[in-house]
Design goal:
- By secondary structure, the protein is an alpha+beta fold.
- The protein is 24% helix and 29% strand.
- The protein has a single domain, classed as tt1808, chain A (Alpha-Beta Complex).
- It contains 6 helices and 10 strands, in the order H-H-E-E-H-H-E-E-E-H-H-E-E-E-E-E.
Length: 216
């Protein structure tokens, strides 16, 4: 049995139906970072109480790589800051969003109220955020599922996936908790080149951006 097959078998065994997990809290996660057991700046994030490796890769690239298209889109998102600042907010790229009790994703884009100095002593919380953005290629399934549920449960009004697989933007709004599905979004729009995406800002306005400008 190869080492890869063994790792897959061990993962399946961990997730068998009788397995019991004790999710990490935000405080426990931060303690691991502060102790050096989880090096700060490494490509990990906390989702549902579990430490997972971030995947910014594209087909043909290793999970530790950042795809060229992914990096380009994040750069284009960052260029929106001049306009966002006029609305009393700014965009943070690939930095933590603290969602108590057990999520701390690092979204590719996060529109938050105020200026960077406001977060000198803390990470933004959902109350600070008007929109969260993920750039997805190999991470598309995770972004549509575990991350979507986390953002919806936190009550973040707008979630946008820049879907590099299908060359579209998926815009989710109206977070809600469904009895059978848990947290989700009540509305989903598929936006294509030629359409306009509207990113909500904390002042109740919107920043309109051409979809084509965010797709390589």
């Amino acid at each position: 049995m190869s080492s890869r097959d063994l790792a897959m078998l061990q993962t399946q065994e961990l997730f068998e139906e009788h397995a019991v997990f004790y999710p990490l809290t935000l405080d426990a996660y931060h303690a691991l970072i502060e102790s050096g057991d989880l090096p700060e700046g490494e490509p990990f994030e906390l989702l549902g109480g579990h430490i997972v490796r971030k995947d910014r890769s594209e087909p043909g690239g290793g999970i530790m790589t950042v795809g060229h298209h992914h990096a380009w889109v994040v750069g284009e998102l960052s260029s929106l800051n001049a306009e966002l600042q006029r609305h009393g907010c700014h965009l943070r790229a690939q930095l933590p969003l603290a969602i108590a009790p057990n999520n701390e994703p690092e979204p590719d884009g996060l529109i938050v109220r105020g200026v960077n100095r406001d977060y000198q002593e803390r990470h933004p919380s959902p109350a600070d955020a008007s929109c969260v953005i993920e750039v997805a290629y190999n991470s598309l399934a995770r972004d549509r599922n575990s991350k979507l549920r986390a953002y919806a449960a936190a009550g973040i009004a707008c979630y946008v996936i820049i879907n590099l697989v299908d060359k579209v933007l998926e815009a989710y709004s109206h977070p809600a908790v469904e009895a059978d599905e848990g947290a989700t979004y009540g509305n989903k729009l598929i936006l294509k080149p030629g359409d306009i995406v509207e990113f909500p800002t904390p002042d109740g306005q919107y920043l309109a951006v051409e979809v084509a400008s965010l797709l390589p």
